Amino acid sequence: MRDQKRVSRVAGVAKRGTSLMRLPRINLTNRVEFIERYARGKRVLHVGCADVPFTLDRLTRGELLHQRLHGCAAELHGVDLSEEGIGIMRSAGFKDLFVADCEKPLSHSTPGGYDVVIAGETLEHVLNAGDFLSALKSACGPNGRIILTTPNHASLKINLRLLSGVELVHPEHVAYYSYSTLSRLLNMAGLEPMDWALYWAEKSKKSQVVNSALRRMPALNYFADGICVACRSIP
To answer: Considering only CA atoms, which of 139, 150, 133 is closest in space to residue 116?
Structure first.
């Protein structure tokens, strides 16, 4: 009887034009360490490298992702739409930086393409996600990897704040993604996910304390702050 009810419930959902996706077990990670693992010793293109409007503040604090990548990549180029952000980074001594629309093919690609193309916390900023992913593919070498991180639509912290009528969000975000919607988007863009992970964001001492408790409850992994995925072009 229980199985019959379950079948009826699933069928009812399907009739309404939606489907149930069984989520895989996804482990937690440190977002920056996840990215560094793929970038270490590689030729890397960092897309959305400036993190405007927080470029100067994060450079000063030593928290800009491009700073970490500079310390581990064999070759590092950066591209961003913001001339202001690129200017700040150049003034700080970073080289091989380009201003470009990241929703168009990236024409300054290194010969043979990059080993790794990284777009950390960038996908949720773009107007046309399909064009953006195509641009990442245009810069990637034949055996390259594309690394994406993005906020999680099911974030526990985001949804708890909504109960009090507050949304804490980057001023330039235009979308949220889930495992299901991001999987579908990648497939439509001709990309195959190879490695998934979830992360709790460490933005303050308070969040570090809270996260240390949340990490001890695996049932809450799906409610983490963000998603990491490494993918490759589908042959």
So the answer is: 139
Q: Which residues pair with 198 in a beta bridge?
A: 28, 227
Helices (H), ranges, the chain: 2-15, 31-39, 55-61, 65-70, 83-91, 129-139, 156-162, 179-188, 205-214
Using one digit for the tens of pLDDT, what is the confidence trace for 69-90? Answer: 999 999 999 999 999 999 999 9
What confidence tens digit (pLDDT) does each residue in 122-151 have?
A: 999 999 999 999 999 999 999 999 999 999
Amino acid at 95: K
CA atoms of 130 and 150, how far apart (whole Å):
15
Residue 233: strand, helix, or coil: strand
Helix/strand/coil (H/E/C) assignment for every residue in 116-155: EEEEECCHHHCCCHHHHHHHHHHHEEEEEEEEEEEEECCC
Residue 2 has pLDDT above 80, yes or no: no
pLDDT the model gives residue 168:
83
Q: What percent of the chain has pLDDT over 70?
A: 91
CA–CA separation, 73 and 39 (whole Å) = 5
Residue 136: C-alpha distances to residues 23, 61, 79, 115, 224 (Å): 26, 28, 11, 12, 26
pLDDT reported for residue 121: 96
**Strand-pair category, 191-199 with 226-233:** antiparallel
- The helix/strand/coil state of 100 is coil
